[in-house]
Each structure stands twice: as C-alpha cells, then as structure tokens.
Amino acid sequence: MSTRWVSVCTFEGREFDAEFELSRAGFRVFAPWEMDDEEVFRNGRMRRRSKKVARFPGYIFVELLDGHSLYRLQRTGDVISVARRQDGAVLPISDKVMGLLREACTLDGYWLPEAAEVTEKRQASGGFLVGEVVMINEGPFNGFPGIVERIDAGRQIMVVSISIFGRSTSVECSTSSASHTKAMAG
Fold first, then answer.
1. Quick one: fold of 121-184?
2. What is the pTM of this model?
C-alpha cells in the first residue's frame, strides 16, 4: 500500500476544524501548531491569554492512502483545495520533508521553537548535530559507532568520540565517511 502526503489549503483560522473533519472522514492529518500570547481588553481590564494557532496558517498536511479518494478529501468541510503542479497533478510532499516537519514537532503537532535552529545547524554541517550518534563507514575505524563532539562545516570534518578497548578516543573524520543512526546521545 503506497502513501503520499499532500498540502491542503484550508480557510485561515479553521485549520483545526478541517483537521477534525478530515480525521473523522478517515484521513491521517498533521497540523503543526504553536502557542500565541495576545492581550485582550475585556471588562475594562487588559488581560493576557494564550491560544493555539496554526504554524502554517491556511495549510495542513494530509496522508493519502491508495483507497482514499481525492474527491472525498476536497469535499470535506473547511477544505479549499489540494496543492497541485502546473499540469494539474497533485503535488506530493516528499518523505524527507515530512520527516523534517515531524522532527520539528512533538507527537501532537506542537512546533518546537528551537527546531528551526536545529534544522539550520544540521544543513550547515552536512546533516549531523553535536551529540548525535553516528557510524563511521570508512578508514581504520570502519564499523565503530561514536558521538559527534565538534563539527567544522567549512572543512566538512567532524570530531567523533569512539570507544577503543573501553577508553573514549577522539577521532577526526569527514562528514562523508559517517552515517546517521537512530539514537541520540543522552
């Protein structure tokens, strides 16, 4: 069964209503959000309140499965349209982009403020972060897991701490000679 994520245009301010309706219709929906503080003048007094707002006003992300109907998606309340290419075909969002979006949020879709900064650092360093567990793929330490200690994005070199005979040793390697693992150093 193949899946693809698409960007769905909704009425601005109605993203969460559209998320609810699409979820009820059987679609898997991802709607990143954040908290916004605003000052409200009520009963002669200024009050501050926080409210949940969409991170991308007017847009949510919907996963289409093989059995899902695009017609049914577009006829759901609060949905205006689906993002399309110039030739009219639905414009899918790559798994890599959706992974980055989901990585920047908590499980319920709350947008982590530092996520954009982390993404920028990751892009500048060839995709690696300090503290990330990596696997060395070339050279004399091929097959050794290690923890990234420092990254020189300009030279594309990083210092990785590996364990040799039970002792921690710092090794310099290029960013192209290491690969990501799922773990983060704690």
1. SH3 type barrels. (2.30.30)
2. 0.55
